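Pilot study result, target chain (409 residues):
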Amino acid sequence: MNASFTADLSADIVIVGAGMVGSLLAAALKHLPLKIILIDPAVVTLPEVDAPYEPRVSALTRASQNMLTQVGAWELVTQHRSSPFTTMQVREEEGRAELQFSAEDIAASHLGCLVENRVLQWALTTVATQAENVKFLAPEQLTGLERYPNHWRVTLASGKIINTPLVVGADGAMSSVRKLTAIAMDTWDYQQQAIVCTVQTEKPHEACARQVFLKTGPLAFLPLSKPDHCSIVWSITNEHAQALLALSEPDFKQALARAFGYELGDVLWCDQRHAFPLIARHAERYILDGLALIGDAAHTIHPLAGQGVNLGFLDAAVLAEEISLGRERGLPISHRHILQKYSLRRRHHNALMMHSMTGLERLYAAKQPSLIMLRNEGVGFVNSHSWLKNFFEKQAMGLEGDLPLLAQN
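Predicted structure:
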């Protein structure tokens, strides 16, 4: 189904990384008369419908759902599994204040949607690679990048060489594109790990995404398609994480239910636990001549607000939009103005979100009685003023700010 490419594998764009963000970029550009090569170390396979839930899920904003709908991937997602949530609840271990958001408050059908990462990637990669002008090379590994006056020379582990005016690094937090081009990275180690797994609870989740801020870090129960199954994300200090991972399954279930204040009753079952370190990263620059970073290759963020992949999707949509606008003005695809506009629109926004999450994490980690009282008063104030709640609800849906057309209804 792919277009035939010349023997020297020249392309208009080489996207390194066919994960969710890289595949969305390819899907968003497929309508343009461009040769696109998508590279990834892994072959993407169709998830089995009755397979166990994947431990890694993404809480998609309505803006992200709009993007997937417009490129044709959302229809594929809904053929498998997705879990819309209609309410959100945020509370903390100390204090009685509780913040509750409801889609009904703003006349919306739902606030967001939980989707397993492998389902998202399969849907997006499938839509992208069905296009005649997109060539998918997998399994394939980037080994070299060399800059020439008007193009990049991309070398792959197989020995293939691709000449292209534009390289996009969408290859994750350990990005080879970023490392090979020596783009520096600012990092902040939270000294925490996120424990993730699927659980079955005694009480139904009622399509509510719940989060409690504990002394040791936030714990989220995210509703899945089965009414009594949730995906949990427990962000906790390294020391406590090792202790929790060492617990037997019965002891872990008990510790989890107790930490959540038995909000959903006992935890009846849990799948295998996984953990990964929480480190915020931000590239000192998103662009070079003929090169751009998007998604986790450019930034990673604390998962307490579930914004990681949503920020990456916005990166991809904005870059695609700027490329399209540049072409309408007759600019070459890798023109400096196009890449600078992308960087200006996304870098400040991502930095603001990252600093906000770090500040929120620090605020809730503080144990001073005066700060605990201040937090509770603030939460209570927001919850009691509908206009303020509506503002935060729309922010949570991702429908405010500088939105690319792909993200709009």
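One observation from the pilot: Residues 78 and 115 are 9 Å apart (CA to CA). A full batch analysis is planned for the follow-on phase.
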